[in-house]
């Protein structure tokens, strides 16, 4: 599966005092600040380059922006709206975009699939879980596994 993200870098430039002010692509006014942002081959006020969804200033968020259908978006909103979520690491079935997922490191899971793979305990937000060999484990099973493998101090 090919994944092409429509991401673009954002540069922050210092405005040379003697340079002719550039027009902002967001508000169409001249940029008279000390700094300006360059993105998509256009110039922007720091305040004008914003995510169309959440209004966050994109010059600050990792300095990458995403575009799709004439929208300028932050990475989070781009992925939320257009991202293909991928395959569930537990059942290997595709997770459609828009569906709520659980994430652990690089893996995504259906909500229903996110459970300890040994005892099937489900997790709530904030619960502790562990990843081992790509298996989700509850704390009990994780610690038991460590004991068996002798990582934990052994009693002789
Ligand atoms: Zn502006
Ligand atoms: Zn956003
Ligand atoms: Zn699944
Ligand atoms: Zn368990």
In short:
12% of the residues lie in helices and 26% in strands.
CATH architecture identity of the largest domain: Ribbon
Strand segment tally: 12
Main β sheet profile: 3 strands, antiparallel
In CATH, what is the class of the largest domain? Mainly Beta
Principal-axis shape equals elongated
End-to-end span in angstroms? Answer: 52 Å
User: How would you state the average pLDDT, rounded?
Assistant: 85
Structural class based on helices, strands and sheet pairing: alpha+beta
CATH topology of the largest domain: Cysteine Rich Protein
Number of helices: 2
Tell me the strand order in the biggest sheet. 1-5-6
Can you give keywords for this protein?
156 residues; Cysteine Rich Protein; alpha+beta; 2 domains; binds zinc ion; 3-stranded antiparallel sheet; single chain; 26% strand; 12 strands
Task: Give the helix/strand layout.
Blueprint lengths: L6 E3 L1 E4 L20 E5 L2 E3 L19 E5 L2 E3 L1 H8 L3 E2 L6 E2 L5 E4 L2 E4 L19 E3 L2 E3 L1 H11 L7
Antiparallel strand pairs: 1-5, 2-3, 3-4, 5-6, 7-8, 9-10, 11-12
Report on this structure.
- It is a single chain.
- The protein is of the alpha+beta class.
- It has two domains: 7-82, Cysteine Rich Protein (Ribbon), CATH 2.10.110; 86-150, Cysteine Rich Protein, CATH 2.10.110.
- It contains two helices and twelve strands, in the order ββββββαββββββα.
- The chain has helices spanning 75-82, 139-149; strands at residues 7-9, 11-14, 35-39, 42-44, 64-68, 71-73, 86-87, 94-95, 101-104, 107-110, 130-132, 135-137.
- A three-stranded antiparallel beta sheet has the order 1-5-6, covered by helices on one side.
- β11 and β12 form a beta hairpin.
- The longest helix is centred in the C-terminal third of the chain and has 11 residues, at 139-149.
- The chain is elongated, with a radius of gyration of 23 Å.
- The structure holds zinc ion (4 copies).
- One zinc ion binds next to loops.
- Residues 22-84, 86-148 form the LIM zinc-binding domain.
- It holds the Pfam family LIM.
- One of its GO terms (biological process) is positive regulation of transcription by RNA polymerase II.
- One of its GO terms (cellular component) is nucleus.
- GO terms for molecular function: DNA-binding transcription factor binding; metal ion binding; transcription coactivator activity.
């Amino acid at each position: 599966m090919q994944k092409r993200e429509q991401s673009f870098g954002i540069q922050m430039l210092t405005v040379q005092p003697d340079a002719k002010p550039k027009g902002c692509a967001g508000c169409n006014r001249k940029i008279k600040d000390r700094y300006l942002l360059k993105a998509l081959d256009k110039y922007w006020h720091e305040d004008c380059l914003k995510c169309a969804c959440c209004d966050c200033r994109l010059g600050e968020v990792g300095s990458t922006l995403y575009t799709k259908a004439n929208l300028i978006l932050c990475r989070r909103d781009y992925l939320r709206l257009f991202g293909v979520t991928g395959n569930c690491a537990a059942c290997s079935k595709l997770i459609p975009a828009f569906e709520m997922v659980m994430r652990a490191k690089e893996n995504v899971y259906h909500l229903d699939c996110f459970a300890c793979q040994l005892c099937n305990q489900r997790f709530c937000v904030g619960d502790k879980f562990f990843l081992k060999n790509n298996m989700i484990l509850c704390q009990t099973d994780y610690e038991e596994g460590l004991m068996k493998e002798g990582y934990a101090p052994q009693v002789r």
